[in-house]
Structure formats: structure tokens, C-alpha cells
Specification:
heterotrimer; A: 989 residues; 39 strands; globular; B: 173 residues; alpha+beta; Alpha-Beta Plaits; 4-stranded antiparallel β-sheet; 5 helices; rod-shaped
Chain lengths: 989, 173, 471
Amino acid sequence: MTTEMKSQPVYWKSLEELRQDSRRTVSDRDEFAEPLPWKRASPVMPAADGHSRRDFLTLMGFTLGAAGCSRATTQHALPFVTAPEDLTPGVPNWYASTCGGCSTSCSVLVKVRDGRPIKIEGNAEAPLFGGGTCATGQATVLSLYDGARLKGPLWRGAPAAWQEIDERIESHLRATMARRGRVALLSGTITSPTTRDLIARWSQHYDRFQHVVHDPVSYAGIRRAHQTCFNRAVIPHYRFDRAAMIVGVEADFLGTWLSPVEFTAQYARRRRPAASMAHHVQFESTMTLTGANADVRHALAPSEIGRLVLSLLDRVEQRDRSRVDPPYSIPASALDAIANRLRSHRGESLVVCGVQDEAVQTIVAGLNDVLGNVGRTFGLSPSSLQKQGDEGEVAALIAAMRRGEIDALILYGVNPAYDHPDSDAFLEGLARVPLSVSFADRVDETAAHVHAVCPDHHYLEAWGDAEPVTGVFSLMQPAINPLFDTRAAPGSLLKWLGEPSNWRNELRSYWQRNLFPLQSAERDFDAFWDSRVQAGFLRVPVPPQPSPAFVGDLDAAVNRIREDAHAASRGADEYELHLYETVALRDGRNANNPWLQELPDPISRLTWGHGLAIAPAAADRLGVRDGEIVTLIADAHRVDVPIWRQPGQSANTVSIAFGYGRTHAGPVGNGVGVNAVPLLRQKSGRRSRVVRLEKTGRSTTLAATQTHHSTEGRPVVREATLKSFLGGVGEHGAAAESLPSLWAEHQPGSHTWGLAIDLNACTGCSACVVACQAENNVPVVGKEEVGRSREMHWIRIDRYYQGAEAAPDVLFQPVMCQHCANAPCETVCPVLATVHSADGINEQVYNRCIGTRYCENNCPYKVRRFNWFRYANNPRFDFNMNSALGTMVLNPDVVVRSRGVMEKCSLCVQRIQAGKTAAALSGKAIVDGQIQTACQQACPAKAIVFGDAQDPRSAFARLRQSPRHYHLLDELGTRPGVGYLTKIRNREA
Amino acid sequence: MSRTRLVATFSDADAVCDAVRRLRARGVRVDDVYSPYPVHGLDRAMGLRRSRLPLVTFLGGAFGAVGALAMQFYMAVFDWPLNVGGKPPNSTLAFVPITFELTVLSAGLLTAGAFLLRSRLMPGAQAATFAGRATEDAFVLVLRCGRDSTCDEGEATRLLFESGVRRIEEIRA
Amino acid sequence: MLDTQWESVARVGGDHSRPARDTWVEGSPALNEISDDIARPLSARPSAGWYGCLAASTTALAVGVGCVTYQIATGIGTWGLNKTVGWAFDITNFVFWIGIGHAGTLISAILLLLRQRWRMSINRSAEAMTIFAVMCAALFPLIHMGRPWMAFWVVPYPNWRGPLWVNFRSPLLWDVFAINTYLTISLVFWYLGMIPDFATLRDRAAAGIKKRIYSLLSLGWDGSQRTWSRYETTCVLLAGLATPLVISVHSIVSMDFATSILPGWHATIFPPYFVAGAVYSGFGMVLLLLIITRRVMGLERYITVQHLDRMAKVTLLTGSLVAFSYSSEFLSAWYGGHADERFVFVNRATGPYAWAFWTMVLCNVCVPQLLWLRRIRSSPAALLPISILINVGMWFERFVIIVTSLHRSYLPSSWVMYYPTSIEIGTLIGSFGLFFTCFLLFIRLLPMIATWEIKGLVGAHGAESPQESHV
């Protein structure tokens, strides 16, 4: 009561009087003898505000209220004997770190609750990535609790002690060194400067040491080309935010290419509907996230890309250098238009290309040079260090291995037996290596064949650092003690080097030696170190260099491309093969992550597998339906894959995704889909891979979360052209006709929460879906149940096609509970299990729900999800919720729902309450942006904005005033709390 | 002192109606008539008053209606108003169906109950001993004779035979 | 000696009863013969036919019990429902059975008020049918819940959760009250109707357990004229209550859909449309049951072709009302001009569930047209298949309304298909098992024809006399 006294003094002379008073408030239907936490701080809410039951339900509806449902998650809790002083039970700690999901090395914050990392969020302060994350990054926290991880080191497949293994390895290395044998380290891209430094010391220590970098999806072509063109073997640091004209060629830079989170943030900044809105043209062979967002998209076969870039160069240079005809599938007029736009945006245009062919990349570099983009949108310094692989060196290493020249091989963060095209050759070579060591965290396809497996930490258990872009450093710190008997891989390298120091000290001293001097903010290193560990990043000024002159030989490149163009021949019954990464699984290293397996692909909407994308017309020619299995014959290699008819697919190209067909990923990932990598194996000399398809007559079910792809002409996703929007032509936002209400309005509480979703910013990347799943303990239900349309995601991203099958427009629309003020679901629930809170939230009270599903039927947005079975602790659903280890990822603030109850988006009510309480206890009002929903926080494009409609200054309230703002199915009069902003296309009509 | 009852058995509804009319014309009070099915017109002939059950039905219905409305108002408006679909706590129209159902329920149950009580029908109750085959195919007329009654036994018997009685028994009690 | 005399007398009584316009009882039997005929099934050893039917229906019942047990143990997921289609077989069956029930009340209450004498020999079994149908119906809202063991939460009772009441705006809650009222009133009406017959049975039975049971059930009924007169008043009052009740019940059931926001559900025509459909399907079921029963139990004499003919006429009438409702639905969808609404009806007739829609049209619109022919109306052999088709059609009507409206509603991204599972089909079979098992036991254990009413019908010479008016 003390704080209450601060606010408005309540004097009492006797206990009786006090008691009576409290009893009176009870009779005034303020059920709580003690005021709820936020009630104390009057500045926020006057204590007179007498709806405490509603607020109580708001607070507890999704958590304590549903405790009755939470039988499933009982765990053995032990009190701290001596509590760590920096840990308050129930209050999360946040640690800055660096995402280990892929080599992009985004800066993240790790939410640690009672000692358990339970959520990954983008680090908004850090440079480059803008505070968002990708779906993979969001899911990495679940991989920490992956039961398939090794519990300790293995020697020849059998558990062994670290000491024993170290002795064996060290003795072997000593012997190798003694007879000057060759030691090789085959790693993935290593962005950690300290680790690179450590490896450098290995090469000093062993004079015949060799470090080879293998990226499953190589970017080596770019680096080779830039070596010849600019004498810099680097990948540029692309700046889409500086580009008014973006041309993407077979580069899914919003979804999977190089640094998607960073690029999405840049892209979104430049795509705001204003005069400065960038124009985006995409050329690609299958429909990708990036193509789906482009203003103009052209489908073309991989073999045409050479001719495409040449004809672009010709038109930009306005001279017929290449003397090739433009690709048959693209009208010359379109190319002229694009070239003109490029020329009219010299220095603020950007051409990116994902094809790893040196000649093509040379032309692209030439284009950017001619357009004066080098050093502006096409930065060579700073440059990206996120991909360093070189398949040439890998091939050489494999050859050496097969010749038996390698005496010791260390595998770090690679799985060539799965993701190298020539995996057979690799395994053959591996068999000839006297000592092979892998740092794999599980017995994967490669680790199954090595002598020693020395499991690395999960990145949330480890110290580390990263330098994704030169001059930008990011730190990684452990958020939890290692769950198993694992050891940081660099630590092992250090140990085998015979160094006494440990990995953390190594890291610290590297930063002291190399980075501390580069900054001037901190004088004392310890202070510097602490501040950096706390912030998670360090940016050091990169000395500005004049952008290098272009010294590449364009004509040579032209000739090579023309040769290839002639070489590229395709029979009538043949198709060109194109392989790509999906947003969810990427190169497949996270294949055992159920969240990613169940994440619907933004384009195909498929979960738990992939299909062979083929143009609908071609499918009709072949007479195949979705799910029908065909045999794909590429040279010697045959593989059976189900058909998936993909609108916008290049006519004679079939595309298939990497990342599937794992055999040693773990129970979740094994045997999902087929491994496409071996298809990359090919006879030399032919650039475009040509395959044939044979019908098998068999077919399988593909689990898609969306089976109807047209809006049926309904205005669910509104769009307009930039011109008409700027000119104020036509209706973009809501036809805001306010019909008279039949009954009196309810008095709103002190807030009216809601979301505004900018359909123009949303790229469909699906990070929000996984973020929501992690935040709200959304269960994974598996392929069979998704196939029955029973996925549980609280937020889904509807994807609609529009226009011609061959070249459709794509529309994305994130849909979660719309929190209608006049909610149809509430009216029909017989037991008041879903009601409206005073601050505008449509609440679902799990422990009151009896599961009539009437609300589901009456919800026009179909956002309600029903627990058809018990999804937790049920062997039938053996995913993360069926093991003590997996359930460690659950968010204690959100109950695990029991069987037979309805659930849906709660607007992250637990976050709202945390924010309210924090504000109240600090005695201040809630500031806009202080509370963020999980989907909003994860969004790299900042497409989702949460806020209080009653706060006119809030970003949310302002967006509701936007001329683009409208409500989904407005005509039904549900008055949703969630609104959408019309999508704007920067093109004529 | 002796009071006798005449139990006259007929085989035909018309005959018993006729008998009742004749007897009442002579001012003989007919105790009751037991029949296998409701003989139309007989109750009028016997001069039975119209039942007051409809009143019970009305009261029962009124009670149900008021009770149901009161319950719903109390729960939804006074005791715990909630924002359900933006509708006002007092969504009177929505209360109508349940009010109607409870009206019918209470009216029906009370009517049936009142009928059973008034007719002394209840588990374990005994049927009139002299009803005999009245539940099968006989029509039994019972009238009381005695000093107090206006009925002269001989005359009553004569009237009964005139209207075609099949058998007459005398019960002394 | 005496008995023979009695008989002759009764005959005389019977003979000079002038023949009614329609003979509702063939060869006007003596009163005690009537009781003999009707009481016979209760004492006689049941026929092989009866045993056969019982075996079949109990098997079906067992299937249902198995399916429901499995479903409750495992989860509603054992049904084919999904994120878009939240109701399908469950509520279809519910509405179907409720509809069946309505014919019983209509016959016993409304026809009583209209003084339709032909109802007398069928109302008892029709009422029984009502009660069993409502039992089957009530089963489905119960088991369709995600947590059936919490079903009692639909009752507004003060409880330790604090003042946690129910939502009086929810049509589902209206259902709860409507169905319970309907079941209660029907039971009361049914039982009251049987009291005089229990008395008859009591007096026929030799001393023993049977006699004790009957005397308990007959509540000491002795056929006193005073009681009779109150009795008839009560019956009329209850009939007067049951008539609006029966209309309200199916109107409320229809409001589950009509008050929703879903195109294809949200229609003001639903209440009358559903009531007509209910009576239609109900009469179909009565026909089916009686055509079989009169044969199996040898009661052709009391349930005559005349009865069948009348019921067929009612069926034809209500069938036409249903057909009219179909067309008016399409008309308003087209005339209303709401795009989504239009789509739902186009999708109904041409979409993936068109086969169900056209089955419905065939059974509910085309088939009943045959009933214009007197030859068909008066031929049990022809009426039997028709009555079956009518029930098939009415089941599909509910399926079409529920599933085709749900599976493709506002947002095309959520359009899905629904396919029933074996569990759902087994549950439907089980409900039929329950229904027929109950009915078969009924015709064995209780007088399936109102004896006293038939006696009144046969014995009352003054049938047409004005005295009847104040029944």
C-alpha cells in the first residue's frame, strides 16, 4: 500500500477501518484484497479504475488462468541453494551475442529465463542488421535443446573421455609433424577473427598445414571475378538502401542470399512509398521471395543468364559489344526499359547476381562499374566476409585425400558427405586419411565416418566473435552452461596446438591486441571488454580507400559466355535443373529443427518436405499433378521427387531445394525430402545442367498450409501503383464509412492495443512465424496433421497469386487474430471462454474453454487454432514438447495448452503485462515502442507495428491515420484492432 | 347407522350417460363414474365444475418467464458484466429464447404436477376397489344412499334399470 | 357364461356405431379386444423379426460406443475436422436427430389441438420416437466438445471459480435450454398419456411382479370421470405448450447458423425453413417406423393405410415447403448481391461437394413429388423406400449447409476440404443403433398404441357430437 499512499494518501486509524475499507472494495467488485502491481502507480492508472477482474484475466488469462491445462509441462524444479545474485526467478536476463544459425553472423540478443535461453531477438543497437532476425535465427534456440546432439566426444563411434581423445590426436599430430605430413582443416566460412588468427597460428606451427573453406552454396565465383576485375578477392558489401534501381539476377537476397536480414532491412528502408521508392527488377528461374517482392519479374532459364547480363551491358553501354541475341523469354523492349532506368540512376543503382560463374560475375561487376555504383551501392571496402568458400580448393583437397596425401583432417562446421556434390569421392578420400576429426555437434553424414568426433558447443553455450563485414565486429557469449560434455571447437584447436591458455582468454587477448587499439572510446581494456560484451558489437572505422579501378577483361568474359551459350543445348524432353535454398532449411544444417521443418515455405506454402518446382504448363504437358513422383535423371544420377506446380517458374526449368534428404540429422530431419546436392555433379564443360523426367505413376502427399492460391477477386490484399498512390488516385485505404452502432459502445480501458501491418514492407520472410512459435509455445504437429490442415501457427503469411500463371504477381499478407472490437467469436462461445479485455484484446481463456469450436466457425479470418490432440508429452507428436530437454525451450510466461481447447494470437499479452508492470513499478507511463510483440520484434522489414490507439503520438496511431490503412473484411463490421497498409507497386499499372 | 353405496355397472357409454341424467333429474347426487375412456358429455351430465388447471399453467408460465429474465439480467448485467463481442451487457433480445424455454418448462411441469396432486395420483396410490373392469371395458356408476342423501335406494335402482344397467351391487360401509 | 354375454353386448354396442368418414380402426373390435391386441406384444414371445432387428441395432450401437470411447480417449482429432471446418458430422447428426423428433410432438400435440382423430393410433409411438431422437441428438453436442468432461460448464451455477456465469448470447446455450426443455416436456406428456394404459395393464395382470410394476406406474389410476375430465384438460394444456415449444426448438437450432456471420449460414429464412424440414424428416421417420412395426407387431388393424396416407400428405406438404426454402435461399443470395454469399451458393451447386447438394435435391425435392399419387400414398411397399430417401436427403441437407458454408468462407487462403473419418461414420451408425434399440425395447415393454384413445375412438358414438368441443 506504500506506493498507493504516495499517490493519494489513504489514512486509517484502526485495522478495522482498513479491513472494512478493503472489504468494501471487494463488494465494489474489486476482487483483490491487494491491489494488482500496476494499480499502485496512479500516474498510469488511477486506482479507481475498477475493472480489476478484467485486468486480472488480461494478466492471467493466458498464463496462470490456464494453469489447469499445464499438466503437460511439469518438470522437476529445484530451488537454488545459493542463488546467483544477478538472477531473479521469473525475470528474464538478456545477453548480447552473435547468431550461429549460418555464417551471416547477425547480432542478436538472447532472452534467458531462469538460466535457460528461450528466445532469440535481433540486437537493434548493433550495426548492419537493424534489429531483425530471420526464421533460421529464431529457430536456433530450439537446436540448443536438440536431443540428437552428442552428449560427449566419440572415438571410432564409441564414447570416450576428452583426455583420451586429446592424447590420441595430439600424439598423431606430433607424429605427423615429425615426418612433415600434411594436416588439413576443412571448415565452413569462419567469420570469427580470433579463430582465423588461431588457424593462422596452426599454419605457422605445422609447415604443411592447409585451411580449406567449403560453403555448401558457394559464392566463390564473385570473389574470383572481383580478383580479376578489382584485384580484390572479396564479396562486396551491397547497399540496397542506397539503390533507387535494383536489378537482381538469380539472387534471392531477401530470402537466403548472403545476408538476407541486412538486405531486407535496407530494402524495406528504400521501398517506402514515396518519390524515392526504389524500383526492383528480378530475373530468376524459380519464384523466390525476392522475385515475389519485385516490381517487375522475369522468369528465365539458368542458361539464359549469360545472355541476359550481356544484353543488359550492351544496352547500358549503348554499344553492341557482345553481339548476342537477348534471352528468348524476355522481350527486348523490357530490357531497354530496364537499361534506361539503370542509366538514369548512375551511382544509385545496383545489379546483383547469384550465379557463381566468373564470366557472368565479371560482366555484372562491369555493369556496376559502368553505372558508377562501385563504392556506393557496390562497396568493396568495407566488404563482406560472410562467404569464403572455394570449391576449387575443396576439390583439390579431396583429390589429395584420395591420393592418401593427407595425414590428418579436421572438419569444422562442414558436412561434405551430405552437402558436397562429390560426396562419394570425399568419403573415399576420408577413408584414406589416417586421422580424421570432426567438430560436428551430432553424428552427421560425415561424422559417421571419422575417427574422432569432438562435439562443438552450441553457439548459445560458447564464447566467440565474428566479423561479418570488415570493420564490424560482433561478440558471442555463453547464455547457458554447456548442456552436454562438449568443447568449443576453437578451444580444441587451441588445445591441440599445445597452448596452455583457454579459449575465452584467447578471445579476450585477441581483442586486446587487435581491436582495443582501434578504438578511442575506452581507455581501460577491462572496461572496454565489459562494455563490448554487454553491447555485443564493436564498429571500428575502416580507412576510406579510393574505389579501385575496373581492370577486368569484359571481352574475354563476353566470349566465354557466348561459347557457353552455344554449348548450352537442350532436347525437347529435357529441362534445365536449378537448385535453390529455402527460407526455412537453407543448406540443411538445421534440418533436425521441428520449427523450421513445419515452417511453411513462403512461396510454395509446403511444410515437411519439398517438391520439384515445374511450370504449370510444363506439368500439363507431362501430365503430372502435384505430389506425383517423377524420376529426375541428371547424367548418371537418378532421384525420385514429387512434382510441385510453381506459378512463375521458368518454362523449361525445374527447380529443387537444398537442405532435404538428410540421413544423419536426427529423428526429426531424417528422410524428409531428397538430397538435391548430388545433382550438382556433372560432366565438365556444360554450364547448364540438363535433366530428364520420367513418370513413376506413384505419388505422395505434400503438406501445404494453403491450398487455394487466388484471392478470387476479393479485396483482401489491397494494392496500388506508386503513381496512383502519390497522385492520390483511386481508393487505397479503408472506405471509412462508419455505420451507426445498434448499441452503446463499451468504455475502453486506459489502452487500446493493436497492430498495423505494412503490406508494402512485408517480404513474407516468415521470421515472425517462428518468433511467435517460440514466444507462445506453439506446438509442432508434424506432416500428417499439417496435411489435414491442422497446423497450429498463431500467425500465418497468406500468399496469393494474381494474373497469368506463367508470370504472376505475388501478394503476402500476415494474418493473426484481428482482435475485433465486435468479435464474432466472443458472441457465440457458450461459456465465455473468449471475451474482450478492457484494453482491446480478444482474450482466450484456455481453462474455461470446453472446445465447441463455434468460435472457429464464426471467425471470418480463420485464425483460431484447436488442440485436436494433446500435443505435449505425447509420443504421437515426438517433437520438442515430448522430452524434458525439448521442453526447456518453453516460455514459462505462456501456458502449454491442453487437448481440446481453442487457442490463437494473444497479442503477446504476457509482454504487454510485463511492460505495464515495469512502467507501473517505475511510476512512468508506457512509452510507445517499449512493448513489442514477438512478430514485430523479429521482423527485419519493420512491417509490423504494435501500439496503443489511444496514444495519438504512437507510431501505431499514426499508421492508422495513413491513407493506405484499411481493415481486413471491413464490411463485416468486426472493427478489428489489427489493420493493414496497402501494398504499393513501383510500376505502371 | 348404515350408509350404502350402489355400484351400477354398464357396458355402454350412452347408457351410463342416460343413467346419470335421469338420476340427477331426480336430484340424486352421483358420486362418480368410472370408465375406460373419457366419455364425452358425461362430465357435463354429472355437472362437474371446469378445472382450474389453466390458472396453474398461467402462473407457472409467468413464474418461469420472470424467473428466467431475472436470472439472465442478474448474471449478465448486475453480477458480472463482460464485453462480449462488443455487445452491451444487457442484450435483451438475446435473452428471449432462454426466457421462452424456461417459461414453457415451468408451466408444463407445474401443470402436470398440479394435475397429479389434485387427482391424488402418485406412486403407491390405490385405485377405487369397486372400479373393477372400468379400466377394461365397463362403465361403473357409483352413488351413495343413506339417510342423509336425497336418494331413495329403490327408486335409484329403478332408474338405473330403466337406463339399461347390467348389474347392480350394494356396498355397505 | 357371463363373459360371452359381455362380448355379445359389446358387439351390439359396436355394430350400431355409425361408420366414420375414414375408418381409423378396421372392423371395429370390442373394447377388451383392443386391449388384448395392444397388450399382446407385451406378454407374447417376440417374433423372430423383432429379434433380428434388435440384433442389428444393438450391433450398430456397439460400434458407436466403441467409436465414441476411442474419440474421447484420444481426441477430436480422430475426426476429419480442421482449422477451417470446425463442425461437420457432429452437428449434422445433431440437427438431423432433433428434426426427426419433431414429428412426434407435432402428431401428439398439434394434431390433438386440431382434433385430428387419425393421430390416436400413432401418437404414442411417435412420441416415443421423439424422445429417443432427442436423446440421440443431445449426444452430439456433448461428444463434439473438445473436453466433454467439462460439459456441465454450460449450466449457470454458482461455483468456486467466483461468479463465472455463461454467455446468454450464444445460440449454443439456447440449444442447451431448448433441448432440455423439449426432452422434459415430451417425457411428461408421454408418461401422462400412458397412465390409463398402465392401469388397464395393472388390472389385466395376474398378481406378481408385473402387477406391482404396473400399479406403481399407474399411480392408482381408476378411470374416475373427475380425473378423466382434469386429465383431458391437462393434455390440452400440455399440447398447447408443446406446440410453440416444438417450433421454438428447431428455430433455435437453426439460429446456431442464422445468427452467425458466415455466408450460407447467416439467413433469416432459417427458422421456418428448419422447422418445415424437421417435420418433413420426422414424418419420413414415423412412416418408416410404423410401416415396419405394424407389420412386425401385427397391428395393421390399428395403423391403417389411411394413417399412412395422411402422413404421406403431411410429408408432401412439408417437403414442398422445404423445396420452396431451397429456391428462396438461392434467390436471396442472387438478389442480395453480396459477392461472398453468391459464391457460397454457386459453390454449393457446382463446388467439390456438389454431389451432396444434388443428392439432397433429389431426395427432398424430386422424390416427394411421387406422393401426389394416391396409389403411392396408400402403398406401404412404395412408402418404405420413399421414407428412407427422405431421411437420407434431410441428413445431406444439414451436411451441405454446414460443410459447404464452412470450407470456403471469406479468406480464400483458408479454403480447405473436409473428409470424414471412419470414427465419425461409426458414431453416426451408433446413433442409429441407439435409436432403434430404444424403439424396439419400447414396442416390447410399453403399450405402443394409446389403448384408451382407441377405445374412445371405437366406443364414442357421439364422436361428431358438439360435446367433444370442450375436450
